Amino acid sequence: MKILAIETSCDETAVAVVQDGSNIISSALATSQEVHAETGGIIPENAARKQLEYMIPTLTSALNKAIEKENFKGSTGKEDNIKEYLKKEIDAIAVTAGPGLIGSLLVGVECAKTLALTFNKPLIPVNHVLAHVYASYLESDSPPQFPYLALIVSGGHSLFIEMRSHTEIKVIGETRDDAAGEAFDKCARLLGLKYPGGPEISKFASIERKQNPNVSFSFFPRPLSHDETTLDMSFSGLKTACARAINSNGSNFSKERIATEIEEAIVESLIFKAKLALIRHPQFKEIVLGGGVSANSRLQDLMQKRLSEVHLHIPKVSYTTDNAAMIGACAYYRNSPIDPLVLEASSSYPLV
Ligand code: KG4
Ligand code: ZN
User: Fold this and answer.
1) Ligand 1 atom with minimal separation from the 128 CA
2) Mutate to test the pocket of ligand 1, among 184, 200, 238 (most ligand atoms within 8 A of CB)
3) Using one digit for the tens of pLDDT, what is the confidence trace for 233-283?
């Protein structure tokens, strides 16, 4: 089954053609990150305006790449080729219906509805957060086996999800305030680093770790981490800790040191809770990591070391952050089409 997938929930405009939930035939992505770097964070209207501009070129680019890769021969010129490819080769259209920024979601959803109606294809709405779990099914020789624990850590969400099957899905822990990625971004801003903050903090932290390999970075708080009654997390206190470390008189903390403290506090909080989840749910033999923060190399290293009793799935780095291929994978495995005339984008689209 070949799915054309569209993702526009935040600052990316992405389109992919994915076969059988795993094989990426083509993938195209345009980001408006440089606009948000200038404003120090995302202004939703700016993101949506850029998506309107990028939507059709990204769609065309993904389809042209697929046509080239599959050596698809249409009857006439290039433009007709795209229409023919859509008509003959695509089995369904998938789209992120939420959660996300509403103006951004609307761009992708309306485009997907139009394609589904025009070419008479089934339309499969996808939950963006759940799709991050399915990034680990892409181009994988050993996809995740149920039941498993998923940890999704992105700019908008931090969730532990119990995955019993493609349809039996339950959130068993989540952040009570900021998401892990949000904490990275907010602290980076305080440090004067550019958006998105996660990769920047990670860069500074790796300098510090190389210079001081034997120092333990345990100065910042890890709220809720030692509370064994809950799998919930909390990251909003990090901003305050970070601001204090920057502003305190006589503080001789370097940017590199503060960045490392932030990274370590977030990574350790996530690992404490992942360990607790495995103790509480011994049936899990595998963990699936996903979302932008899962690109963090300290998180990946420490998870491999401290949770060595389970098999860890980490998507390829380009599929940790937002992309359309994961939307195509999620749509394939959960395959629940909806009438294009009734689909509505929603900033709080339910997980299941
Ligand atoms: O999944 P994603 O692309 O978008 C959302 O669904 O939110 O995640 C974006 C988040 C941003 O907060 C960004 O700072 C963070 O992922 N991120 C990282 C890294 N790369 C991206 N955080 C820590 N370390 C990284 N290497
Ligand atoms: Zn995301």
Assistant:
1) 6
2) 184
3) 999 999 999 999 998 766 678 999 999 999 999 999 999 999 999 999 999
Q: For 200, list phi and psi in degrees, rounded to 5.
A: -65, -50
Helix axes 180-190, 197-211, angle to 10 degrees: 70
CA distance 328 to 207: 37
SS3 121: coil
- Contact between 112 and 93 under an 8 Å Cβ cutoff? The reply is yes
d(CA 291, CA 321): 5
Please provide the distance, in angstroms rounded to a whole number, between the alpha carbons at the two ends of the chain: 22
The number of the ligand 1 atom at minimal distance from the alpha carbon of 129 is 6
Instruction: Determine the distance separating the centroid of ligand 1 and the alpha carbon of 106, expressed in angstroms.
Output: 22
Nearest bound ligand to the CA of residue 292: 1
CA distance 32 to 42: 9
Structure tokens at 82: 């795209």
Ligand 1: residue whose CA is nearest its atom 21: 292
Which atom of ligand 1 sits closest to the CA of residue 182? 12
Q: Tokens 């370097």 correspond to what residue?
A: 254
pLDDT tens-digit series, residues 160-206: 999 999 999 999 999 999 999 999 999 999 999 998 999 999 999 99
What is each CA distance from 304 to 143, 262, 271, 331, 342, in whole angstroms?
Answer: 17, 20, 10, 29, 44
In sequence order, what are the residues at sequence separation of 6 or more whose Cβ sits closer than 8 angstroms to the Cβ of residue 305?
A: none
Please give the model's pTM, rounded to 2 decimal places.
Answer: 0.96
Reported as a single tens digit per residue, the pLDDT across 16-56 is 999 999 999 999 999 998 888 888 888 999 999 999 999 99
Residue closest via CA to ligand 1's atom 14 equals 198
Please report where in the chains the tokens 């060595």 appear, as a residue.
308
